[in-house]
Write a structure and sequence with these properties.
The protein is mainly beta. The protein contains 5 helices and 49 strands. Strand 40 and strand 41 form a beta hairpin. The longest helix has 24 residues, at about 40-65. The chain is rod-shaped.
Length: about 675
């Protein structure tokens, strides 16, 4: 305030009231002797009261405006302006006591950042970061567009929260003259970026400076929430660990990335692979470029990192202009990577939509992808290098240009469970499969449905369903749609072990099956009627009839495959087995009929006693039995042995026609059917 007195001197005491705050100036003998009761240098008094007045006015204005943070910037400006002048009255401490500097509105003085994207705001924002000091605080960017057009990024070197009014209201724009490698760098733990859009100034991605959005190196507890990245000619987010510091505690949530050269890149140092990060609710679209300094970047890239949880991830690449990057890639020494609800749409160039592969620092292991869809890439999912312990569950893998699944890994333990694979080979070039398993890694394909119709080479679609080379792969409970045959289309490559369900009622087996049972255990075949088929054998592609059938009553039937079965073998009655319709043929010289001898047998020997009856005891003889006799060893004077009497169920007697015949006679009983 100023008081100008001309002419006659005023009275010695002038009270000036009103304004903010009220000021009392004492004038004695024409001179100002005190201001608000304080004495001393007039210059010092004036400036001291100006500081207090500004600070107090800021508080009053703030209370009226219900703005808990705007007053601090004004008060800080007042203090800064006053500090250069003599201050004999301690007013700076008083003014400073009115505020706590942990929140800065970047558009307030002394920073006064331009929010119309007309003037570079980098220096103003960095000055505010520096003013908060090592303890950190919040930099508030109100609604508006803040231009970054210099040579350096904004560096969050303290625990800073960079907060906007919402990604639809506040934007950081990377100008055409920006030459930094990232718009924002993070070099301190415990930073947060929230409610901001970070974008290139041009809506043509490759015409913007070749820089990344946010790069964090060697920090922990970084949080990026509710933030949008658009038209950035690089990765939207890069988070890199170091040998000394992992990415532990990093959380990325509620992120939209659109029309950027790349999405998110996690990378740990080979000396400290652990990451311990959470990635959730990420939506991307139109990612990837095929030209420029940042061509062929990935949508989501997890590299040399352990313990990463990714949930609700939607990485969509540009179909034809996205370059050769993958929508989702796990590469190198990674472990415990868990992905839930993945909707990946890949580019139609490169190697694959989703890639799990080895890198210079090692091989991925313990990677699980569960729930979602993998579609419209050059290959649906590629498991390569020596990747091992990979499980893909409850996924829809479809409409990819070549194979829906390609496994070239030399690792082990690759599993596909409860997946739907359909309509691969949409590029109509080469021979394509729903599953092309050419690597040596062992694994399982279980409870999967294959919905692809079989087409001829050169037509959009697949020519074979599951092509397995030399790997030990077990296909269990597979269900096929469309036409095809097991040897030609469903399984053009033969795995060592295979069990497949062709439809809802029939199982087919191919390859070796080794079933081992403990004591008391068995394989049970249980038809619902004695006359129903239990087991059948035929030659695939040749026979029109089964060559062998086992019926429910245990009867076996035989045929030649080209006509009806004509031979039956089975139970003919109590303690009887045989054939009711066929001859028994011993078709090899040297083989014959062997019958057990002994008590009550149907085969044996006896010694003749001339014309005296010799009794042969056996319960096997019947009244209708045919008893055949022949001399086994000559004795005495041979006559002709014959059966003289028989008692059914007890014995028969034999004698010779020559009284001196003591030969050994062989006998055999044959009963009529």
């Amino acid at each position: 305030m100023k008081i100008r007195v001309t002419g006659e001197q005023p009275t010695d005491h002038v009270d000036v009231t009103g304004g903010v705050p009220s000021t009392v100036i004492d004038v004695t003998a024409g001179l100002v002797s005190s201001v608000n009761g304080r004495t001393g240098s007039i210059t010092g008094l004036a400036e001291a009261d100006e500081v207090e007045g500004i600070a107090h006015a800021a508080v009053v204005e703030h209370v009226a405006a219900d703005d808990p943070h705007g007053d601090r910037a004004a008060a800080v400006a007042a203090i800064a302006g006053h500090a250069v002048a003599p201050d004999p009255h301690g007013d700076r401490a008083y003014a400073a006591s009115l505020v706590t500097v942990d929140w800065i509105n970047i558009t307030k003085g002394p920073y006064s950042a331009d929010k119309t994207a007309s003037i570079d705001a980098t220096a103003a924002i960095q000055a505010a970061v520096n003013a908060l000091g090592s303890r950190g605080g919040t930099i508030y960017l109100p609604p508006g567009d803040f231009l970054l057009n210099g040579s350096s990024p904004i560096d969050l070197a303290a625990p800073i929260t960079l907060r906007g009014a919402g990604h639809g209201a506040t934007s950081l724009r990377i100008g055409p003259s920006f030459t930094g490698t990232s718009a924002i760098t993070v070099s301190s733990d415990d930073c947060m970026i929230q409610g901001i859009q970070i974008r290139g100034a041009s809506s043509t991605t490759t015409s913007n400076p070749a820089c990344h959005g946010v790069t964090a190196t060697g920090v922990q507890e970084l949080r990026v929430f509710n933030t949008t990245f658009q038209w950035i000619n690089g990765y939207a987010l890069r988070l890199h660990g170091t040998a000394a510091t992992t990415l532990h505690g990093t959380q990325i949530d509620m992120i939209k990335i659109q029309s950027c050269a790349g999405g998110i890149h996690f990378k740990s140092d080979p000396a400290a692979m652990a990451a311990n990060v959470q990635l959730s609710n990420v939506f991307t679209r139109f990612l990837g470029v095929n030209t420029g300094a940042h061509a062929n970047l990935d949508g989501i890239r997890i590299e040399d990192s352990w313990d990463v949880l990714a949930q609700n991830i939607l990485p969509w690449m540009q179909a034809t202009l996205g370059g050769t990057g993958a929508a989702f890639r796990v590469v190198g020494n990674c472990a415990a990577i868990f992905v839930q609800n993945l909707d990946a749409l890949g580019p139609q160039t490169g190697v694959a939509n989703v890639v799990i592969e080895s890198g210079p620092n090692g091989d991925p292991q313990n990677v699980q992808i569960q729930g979602g869809v993998i579609q419209q890439g050059i290959v649906g999912i590629l498991i390569a290098g020596a990747a091992n312990q990979v499980r893909v569950r409850t996924m829809r893998i479809l409409n990819n240009q070549t194979h829906n699944v390609s496994v070239t890994s030399s690792g082990y333990g690759i599993y596909f469970d409860e997946c739907l694979l359909s309509l691969g080979g949409q590029g109509a070039t080469g021979t394509n499969y729903d599953v092309d398993w050419t690597g040596s890694a062992d694994g399982f394909v279980t409870d999967c449905r294959f919905g692809s119709a079989i087409v001829t080479t050169g037509t959009a679609g697949v020519q074979g369903i599951v092509n397995i080379g030399s790997a030990a792969v077990r296909v269990l409970n597979a269900n096929f749609a469309g036409t095809g045959s097991m040897s030609t289309n469903w399984f053009p490559g033969s795995p060592p072990q295979l069990l497949t369900r062709v439809d809802g009622s029939t199982y087919e087996a191919r390859g070796s099956m080794d079933m081992q049972f403990a004591a008391g255990q068995r394989l049970s075949l249980r038809p619902n009627a004695a006359s129903n088929n239990t087991l059948a054998i035929n030659v695939l592609g040749t026979d029109v009839n089964d060559r062998y059938r086992l019926l429910g009553d245990g009867t076996s039937q035989y045929g030649i495959g080209t006509s009806a079965r004509d031979t039956t073998w089975g139970r003919q009655g109590a303690a009887q087995i045989g054939t009711p319709d066929s001859d028994i043929v011993i078709g090899q010289a040297g083989k014959g009929l062997r019958v057990k001898e002994g008590t009550n047998a149907k085969l044996g020997t006896a010694t003749l006693n001339g014309t005296t009856d010799v009794t042969v005891s056996t319960t096997a003889v019947a009244s209708t039995s045919r008893i055949l006799l022949t001399i086994q060893a000559l004795g005495g004077t041979a006559g002709s042995p014959y059966v003289r009497t028989r008692t059914a169920g007890t014995s028969f007697t034999i004698r010779s026609t020559n009284a001196s015949d003591t030969s050994t006679v062989a006998w055999m009983i044959v009963d009529p059917a």
